[in-house]
Design goal:
The complex is a heterodimer of chains A (624) and B (445). Chain A is of the alpha+beta class and 624 residues long. Helix content of chain A is 36%, strand content 18%. The model of chain A has no long low-confidence stretch (mean pLDDT 90). Chain B has helices at residues 29-37, 87-100, 109-116, 125-145, 149-174, 185-207, 228-236, 279-293, 310-318, 331-334, 359-368, 375-403, 407-425, 429-440, and strands at residues 7-10, 19-25, 47-52, 58-67, 78-84, 103-104, 217-222, 254-260, 263-269, 297-303, 325-329, 340-343, 346-350. Classes of the chains: A alpha+beta (624), B alpha/beta (445).
């Protein structure tokens, strides 16, 4: 009889983080997967990071998660996006070798103490008097566990569509999980259908690169993990492979438009909703018909460099049509398809059925993470995975669960959005979703989260000391620069005037110069009175801190002002139907979400300030 | 906005009485007394003082009463200022107070604080709920009604412009590798400067009071001989203007003051609209157009026996009165039933002004839409000013940041401006933004 503290179902991006995190807290974890070799598989784009996504990934890394470290070790091309737009919106994006990524993930999982991989398919969940006991496998055997984390991605009820062909599958080449859905239907879980898609893969040797624009790594070779980015460890590099850029044209569009009725997206076969921000090429041609060309990024898939991933050409048109339209594109005139593009429909659970700890409200000790909560993207999945893993472990160890707030992490923004608003299309992170974007930057996720991770048991002492070291260095350099004074009539100030058109009226510290947007750390390094320092490697971080100080002070003020209302707890026994003065719509929405605090209630769509006032008065009057 | 703020509001309705009352509640009351009254006040004593502005210039001769916490309506320190009921003076006092020590109260906030400080002991929570709900509803109505129709349109247009610029910048930030239009410093500057000029114009017009009608004005228009004067007279309850069947009898617009449900409103009866070359009639029609532009609401009268036709449609479109209520008059002739219906976003009343059929429906609907008799009106205008000024500050900072190429700070200032403006009209900032980004820009690899 096998018994574990945590059972994780599914070895994708969410599952791996959940399982590994729980195992790091020294409890026993079983990771159940249909195929050991699928662990860490990237179903779609072989890249990690990007705007909003790298922010999530780095937060996972700050909690000592896996996604960034492994991406760095499998990097083929590394870039920083929005480099000229300010540190709060900069993002790192790593094109990876999907084989190396998978291999390293499997190695990491296999070598982790307390973590056991079990191959097989879960067909049912065991409940005894409404208490969770474990799972049943398709061969009838049982595995017992105190907590279960479900991270089945697109496998639950997965159905692939290519042209007029459709068949059940979790991803191309993998079986779907059909029986398990039955358990949730029986227990009245709110299940919906979503869809996502992927482009065809092209044989690299059949592409003519002679006329295409190349895009290599940035000079600086940015890394995702703080270990490599700020703590001075160097990742084991593999060879670099560039991306290339091409474009669709009117011929391409004509073929796609003419074949529209053959696409399951347009002939009614699929009616579930896909993400607006990852549209199929059929969608792009249809909605933006006045654009006569769309960009396509030809991205390397693996180190072996046999196949190319054409980013921007997601489709589920029939295979022969896919080939025809590909061949109208510059560089792809003689291309061969190695794997067709397809759309996949899958089942997901309404995330309003979860607490912010990702525990289901219906069944204690059952956690959901990843695509099954209506999100899309590896980073979104990994972020939920690590939270679910941490909280499953907290439940086992009988300590308080945790979830960051909206002003502490993008993970907090995402989870709050999911459990408060639900989803009506696959949820992907953008920086626009975070009202505290200036605070939640790529450079400071570790400063925001690592210490908490240590308290929760998922961050090692060694890792914590790396963080503390970084913080010390920043403090020291900031103090040092604060003590160097520049007088208005000095030689330095005339240099500043000449170079930056800066007239000093009073004595200023060298540190305050960094508040000016066009003065960088390297600019002050060149000044005579700069002096000596051992900490120039983190100088740019001091500059970033200075730059946002004023804004963050103002935001802090706003946060503390609204804190009282935001944090006012709503008693869990509250019955909204009994509160006079609430509209029926408000009653329904509040009862559905059962918000913890007035702050969360205020974010539900349609809940007005008047309603919050009413709730506050009701709560006080009944001194619940 | 926080519960710790000191709040202020005009507690009496505008232009209604000889005396106006401003209430202030919160921890800054003492500072306010020091600054504007200039001497210590004994609690619960009515004291005659000269209230001064920040430059120490006298504003008005007022009576002030200081209530020391917890012995006040809200349970906090309070100051009550009784001044002459001149709206301009009162607004000025309020603005001075709010410039540094306080902010305009939310609807129902004084009552809320009173309750939370256990000063009001009502048995039923419903009573408070109703009060608060009613205050919120009337506040948003006040936003529409106390200001001329144009104002809300201008705000909406301004909000739309901000949204467009934000969407462009967010698209650029979040999808740098897609074919989104690159935002240049110059393009952004131009766009922000336009916003600055629009907001400044709005602030000026609100300040000048041009925009603010203290009493709602209802203008009655329609083709000749549809019964406009008859309707006006019915509402008046007497023969105010000449009623005869010769078109063109009402040459000038006749202004009548009416009291509906205890609220004062002005009804303007106009000359019939039609194509004519008669110069005197033309003058009358010009006056009609002026009356339309100063109206909060337009009643468009139709002779039911002739019916609502293409010419009516054209006249409505030409005069820009799409939000009008259509009154199908003379149902005594056609036999239609008196009722109120809504169709295609318009409201239709079947009435007979001559015989009084269906006129109660009209009267009731009119009184629903008149100015609420409480503090929400007085403070609506100040609230708007507060939000508008706040957004102007944000735009100015955004311009600066843009010149320094700090795009993420431009985005932040625009976000704050957007939130302030939307607070005037209501609405959700986040969803609108994402919707716009995805509908306008081809995003997504």
């Amino acid at each position: 009889m096998k018994k574990y503290d945590v059972i994780v179902i599914g070895g994708g991006h969410a599952g791996c983080e959940a399982a590994h995190a729980a195992a790091r807290t020294n409890i026993s974890v079983a990771l159940i997967t249909m195929k050991h070799d699928s662990i860490g598989q990237m179903s779609c784009n072989p890249a990690i990071g990007g705007i909003g996504k790298s922010h999530l990934a780095k937060e996972v890394d700050a909690l000592d998660g896996l996604i960034c470290k492994i991406a760095d070790h499998s990097a083929l091309q590394r870039r920083k996006l929005n480099a000229s737009k300010g540190p709060a919106v900069q993002a790192t994006r790593i094109q990876t070798c999907r084989d190396t990524y998978k291999l390293k993930m499997q190695q990491t999982i296999d070598s982790q103490p307390n973590l056991f991989v079990v191959e097989g398919m879960v067909s049912n969940i065991i409940l005894d008097n409404d208490a969770l006991k474990g799972v049943v496998m398709s061969d009838g055997s049982k595995i017992f566990g105190k907590t279960v984390v479900l991270t089945t991605g697109t496998f639950l009820g997965g159905k692939i569509h290519i042209g007029d062909k459709s068949f059940s599958a979790g991803r191309l080449g993998d079986k779907a999980s059909m029986e398990l859905e039955g358990f949730f239907k029986k227990n009245d879980f709110s299940i919906g259908r979503l869809k996502t898609g992927t482009p065809p893969r092209i044989l690299k040797s059949s592409i003519d690169y002679s006329m295409l624009v190349e895009q290599g790594s940035d000079e600086a070779r940015p890394c995702l993990s703080y270990m490599h980015d700020h703590y001075g460890q160097i990742p084991k590099a593999i060879s670099e492979i560039s991306c290339h850029i091409t474009y669709t044209n009117s011929n391409t569009h004509k073929i796609i438009k003419d074949s529209q009725s053959l696409s399951p997206l347009y002939n009614g076969v699929i009616d579930s909703i896909g993400p607006r921000y990852c549209p199929s090429i059929e969608d792009k041609v249809e909605r933006f018909y006045d654009k006569d060309s769309h960009q396509v990024f030809l991205e390397p898939e693996t180190l072996a460099d046999k196949e190319i991933y054409p980013n921007g050409l997601s489709t589920c048109l029939p295979e022969d049509v896919q080939l025809s339209f590909l061949r109208t594109i510059k560089g792809l005139e003689n291309c061969k398809i190695t794997q067709p593009g397809y759309a996949i429909e899958y089942s997901y659970f309404d995330p309003r059925g979860l607490t912010k700890y990702l525990e289901t409200k219906k069944i204690k000790n059952l956690f959901f993470a990843g695509q099954i909560n209506g999100t899309t993207g590896y980073e979104e999945a990994a972020a939920q995975g690590i939270i679910a893993g941490i909280n499953a472990s907290c439940s086992v160890r009988n300590i308080d669960m945790w979830c960051p707030n909206r002003d502490q992490a993008y993970i907090g923004v995402m989870i709050d959005d999911l459990v408060t608003l639900g989803v009506n299309e696959p949820y992907r992170m953008f920086t626009s979703r975070a009202e505290h974007r200036l605070r939640l930057r790529e450079d400071n996720a570790d400063q925001r989260l690592t210490a908490t991770g240590y308290d929760l048991g998922v961050v090692s002492t060694e890792r914590l000391s790396f963080l503390q070291n970084k913080v010390e260095k920043i403090k020291a350099e900031s103090k040092r620069l604060g003590e160097i004074k520049i007088l208005p009539a000095s030689k330095v100030s005339s240099i500043l005037e000449k170079k930056f058109n800066l007239k000093l009226k009073n004595t200023q510290s060298m540190r305050s110069l960094l508040k000016m947007s066009d003065i960088r750390y390297k600019d002050i390094q060149g000044l005579e009175s700069f002096g000596d320092t051992m900490n120039s490697d983190i100088g740019h971080l001091v500059a970033i801190q200075e730059r946002y100080e004023g804004y963050l002070k103002r935001q802090d003020q706003e946060i503390s002002n609204s804190l009282k209302t935001q944090n006012t707890k709503i008693p869990s026994q509250i019955i909204y139907n009994e509160i006079k003065g609430l509209s029926n719509e408000a009653r329904e929405k509040l009862s559905e979400v059962m918000p913890d605090t007035l702050g969360q209630a205020s974010r539900i769509s349609g809940i007005t300030p008047a309603i919050i006032s009413l709730l506050r008065i009701y709560i006080k009057k009944h001194s619940l | 906005m926080s519960d710790k703020d000191t709040i202020a509001a005009i507690s009496t309705a505008h232009g209604k009485s000889a005396i106006g009352v401003i209430r202030v509640s919160g921890q800054n009351v003492q500072s306010i007394i020091n600054e504007f009254v200039g001497r210590k006040l004994k609690p619960r004593f009515a004291t005659n003082v000269e209230i001064r502005d920040k430059k120490n210039i006298s504003i008005d001769d007022v009576i002030v009463i200081y209530f020391k916490a917890p012995s006040s309506y809200t349970g906090e320190d309070m100051l009550e200022i009784q001044s002459h009921g001149n709206p301009i003076t009162m607004d000025f006092i309020l603005e001075n107070i709010c410039s540094s020590h306080a902010r305009i109260s939310r609807p129902g906030e004084f009552t809320e604080r009173a309750f939370l400080n256990n000063k009001i002991d009502l048995v039923q929570a419903e009573a408070i709920a109703d009060l608060i709900n009613a205050s919120h509803i009337s506040a948003s109505k006040a936003a529409m009604i106390t200001l001329q129709g144009n104002f809300s349109k201008k705000i909406e247009s301004l909000i739309n412009d901000v949204l467009m610029l934000r969407a462009k910048i967010e698209a650029c930030i979040n999808f740098p590798e897609d074919d989104t239009p690159e935002t240049s410093v110059k393009n952004n500057s131009d766009a922000i400067n336009l916003l600055i000029s629009s907001v400044s114009k709005l602030i000026t017009s609100v300040n000048n009071g041009i925009v603010v009608n203290k009493k709602p004005v209802i203008t009655i228009v329609g083709k000749p001989n549809v019964g406009k004067s008859s309707l006006a007279n019915f509402l008046l309850g007497e023969q105010g203007s000449i009623v005869s069947s010769i078109p063109g009898t009402t040459r000038d617009a006749l202004h009548h003051e009416v009291v509906l449900a205890k609220n004062n409103i002005t009804i303007i009866d106009t000359a019939g609209l039609r194509d004519t070359s008669d110069s005197i009639e033309l003058q009358g029609i010009e006056i009609t157009k002026k009356s339309i532009s100063s109206a909060n609401m337009v009643l468009y009268i139709v002779d039911d026996s002739v019916g609502f036709d293409e010419e009516d449609k054209r006249l409505i479109a030409e005069n820009g009165i799409d939000g009008c209520w259509v009154i199908n008059n003379k149902i005594d002739i056609t036999g239609a039933k008196p009722n109120v219906t809504a169709k295609d976003g318009k409201i239709f009343f079947n009435v007979s002004s001559l015989h009084g059929l269906g006129m109660d429906n009209l009267k009731n609907k009119l009184s629903e839409n008149s100015i609420p008799d409480d503090e929400t009106t007085g403070t609506a205008r100040s609230r708007h000013l507060e939000h508008l000024s706040s957004s102007l500050d944000n735009f100015l900072v955004a311009l600066d940041c843009n010149n320094n190429q700090q795009l993420e700070l431009v985005a932040e200032e625009l976000r704050l401006a957007h939130v302030s403006l939307v607070a005037i009209m209501g609405g959700d900032v986040n969803e609108d933004l994402l919707d716009k980004v995805f509908s306008d820009f081809c995003i997504g690899k």
